Amino acid sequence: MDGIPALVIDPPDSPALVARTRSLDAEAARYVFVMAGLALLARAWPPAERRRFIATLGLTPGARVLDHCSGPASNLPAIAACVGPAGTIVAMDLSSEMLRRGRRWAERRRVRVDLHQADAGALPYEDGFFDAVVHVGAINQLGEAIPRVVAEMVRVTRAGGVVAIVDEGLEPSRRRTLLGRLLIRRNALFASRPPLDALPPDVQPEVRWGMRGIFYQIVFRTGAARTSQRSGG
Q1: What single string gives the DSSP state of each residue in 151-210?
Q2: Is 195 in contact with 150 (CB distance < 8 Å)?
Q3: What is the H or E stretch that residue 34 is in?
Q4: How far apart are CA 70 and CA 91, in angstroms?
């Protein structure tokens, strides 16, 4: 795909994959307008919020980090600042348009990023390869696949590594406010709650709230004893 490796299980030209990627590409076209609307409603600037959140994850120079469901590369500036030129950044997404945006960003800033078209439910990476996995903004849309996707994030993270998951979801005190009701009316995903039941039983997650309480942030370290989640389908 335009020089970006397609590491998906389904053939790149399969009808199912083509339909999914077209839907994601259409969503990519709306992304800028959606985020601008959120910034106005929440009176918060998303890029600054991302930088602050990623800065709290303890990413160190030289670390290997997976930007999971990378989208339009919004996480990459903050990740690159943390891991430095000695670090390894891999950004995966299923959307071809999102990946092209990520490549343009990396080329403009001369940041080395490995971009892959991949499926969140079947990551093409070895067990424990990454020091951290960062996911922002897609988990709510995955429905019944959420446990599988989280298991894959954990599988590719080394023991003691960091997994961070962020998506729409209102802080309890926000749910009955005018802003909260307006957000849910415009986008039902804001009624989502942190998917804590999808996490491994041996982790101790920290739940935070970002964008003035309209996005949940789950952060945890993986347990020491883990087995591969890929066998068995």
Answers
A1: HHHHHTEEEEEEEEEEEE---GGGTTSHHHHHHHHH-GGGG----GGGS-TT---EEEEE
A2: yes
A3: helix 15-42
A4: 6
Q: Structure tokens of 34?
A: 């959606």
Q: pTM for the whole thing?
A: 0.87
88-93 and 157-168: which strand pairing?
A: unpaired
CA distance 190 to 86: 37
Tens digits of residue pLDDT in 130-160: 999 999 989 998 999 999 999 999 999 999 9
Tokens linked to 208: 């935070």
- 45 is written with which tokens? 């600037």
Assigned fold of 15-221:
Rossmann fold (3.40.50)
Contact 25, 120 (CB under 8 A): no
DSSP state of 13: T
State both tokens at 99. Answer: 């990946």
Q: Could you tell me the two tokens for 7?
A: 């590491």
How far apart CA 30 and CA 45 sit, in angstroms, is 17
Quick check: 131 and 65 in contact, CB under 8 A? Answer: yes
> pLDDT tens digits for 158-203?
999 999 999 999 999 999 999 899 889 988 999 999 999 999 999 9
Tokens matching residue 4:
């970006």
The sign of the CA dihedral 194, 58, 101, 18 is negative
Which stretches of 43-95 are DSSP H helices? 46-55, 76-83
